[in-house]
Structure formats: C-alpha cells, structure tokens
Prior knowledge:
Blueprint: E1 8-12, E2 15-20, H1 31-46, E3 52-57, E4 61-63, H2 81-91, E5 96-99, E6 103-105, H3 107-113, E7 117-121, E8 125-127, H4 130-133, H5 139-149, H6 151-160, E9 164-165, H7 166-171, E10 177-179, H8 184-197, H9 200-215, H10 220-231, H11 234-245
Parallel strand pairs: 2-3, 3-5, 4-6, 5-7, 6-8, 7-10
Antiparallel strand pairs: 1-2, 8-9
Helix pairs in contact: 1-2, 2-3, 5-6, 9-10
Amino acid sequence: MEQPGLPTLRAEGGVATIRLNRPAVHNRIEPADLAELMALFGRVAADPDIRVLVISAGGRSFSSGFHIGELSPGAAQDENSFGRMADALEALSVPTICAMQGGVYGGSTDMALACDFRIGVTGMAMFMPAARLGLHYYPSGMGRYVTRLGLDTAKRLFLTAERLEAEEMLRIGFLTELVAPDALEARVAALATTLAGNAPLAVQGMKTALNAIARGNPDLSLIAAGARRAKDSADLVEGRAAWLEKRAPRFRGL
C-alpha cells in the first residue's frame, strides 16, 4: 500500500514514471523517500519491459532537495545517502528524463543532473545553497556538476550559491530543453516515445559507455562487449529490415 508522501511508480507502454509526492513542502526529499526511491529504481532495473524512466513532480517546485531539518551538526549521519540515490539513478541502464514543472534546489539539482535529459519550464529557477548552509557537498554530486556543466560553472554554482533563472539554466547546459509550462507534459511524452522506440541494447549500452567516458574511467573491454552484443542481436536484424522496408522497427531487446 502506498504511504502518503512517498514517491510512486507507474509504468505504461514501456515508459515508467516516478513521481515525487510532497508538493506542500516543495517536494523536499525525506530520509524515507531516499529508501523508497532506491527500491523503485530497483524495480525499474529489474523490469525488461521498461525502456524509459521519467522523474516528475507536482506543485510549485520540482523539488527543494533534502530536508534541511534532517541535517544536525555533529550528529552521526549517513552523509552520502542522497549521493547514493543519485548515483543509482545515474547508473540505471534505461534512459532517464527529469521533467521539472518548477524550481529545483539543493540536492535535487544533482538528482536532475543524474538524469540523461532535463526538461524545464519558463519561470523556474535553481540554486545550490551548500555554501550558505556551511555544508560540504558529497563527492559524486560535485563530480556530476563538473562532468555535466564544466569546472568553471560548477565553481560558480557551488561557491556563490547564486540563483539562476530558467534561460541561464538552459544556456549553461543544466537544462536540455526549456518549454512553456503547458507544453511540458507533451514534450516529455514525445521524447519518451522516441527513446522507447529505439533499440534498447544499443541505447542502454551507449548510455552506459557515454557516462563512463564523461567520468574519464571507461572500461573499453566492457564497451566493446556491449557493441558486440548489439551487433549479434535480433534487434540489429530488425533495424536493418525496417530501414530497407521503410517502416518503423519493432525492437524486442534481443
């Protein structure tokens, strides 16, 4: 049974959607939410019928990040629990879309960066307040900022805690696309349909390889193995046939 406030998962037509469910508090992430998100990511990873994952929310903000009230100076805490959640999201083999209907702040900016595509709306904003809080951010999150946005931009956002508006978020590459609020749902659905329609072995293998290359630690033997798997797949046969017959391919991930 779903508990009030916890993230929820639904899947339809190869597209899974995880929704944050605390709009009254700007979808802040509670410790219980971290555990639930990890469990939901596990369900997505274990379901071969899921081809795309969308992270969404409702209310005025996409997410205000981890609940600041849970941070207690000097207390024994797992300071990397949020980072492990974002790492698990990034590590999912299926392509991921972060659909942001409002502002994104704190740790949830890293959650967004862990996704492959980030679609936001005009009028939204972001900021990373770690320096204002006296908080030293966790390593994997800083790494994602650097690999996604570049070192200079990462320093600007972490060290100044500057607030950025939607157009600047698009310019620096935090957003993949910027749309009007009433166009968000349709654009996310269109992108998810495109991703779900491509060959999953090739898409998932290339996603994993590209992320490893961006981090500077690619395992070339694993990348080559993924390429061979795609080359020997029934999906490649189907893709070639569909190309020659000028029809849409019907990929099965085999």
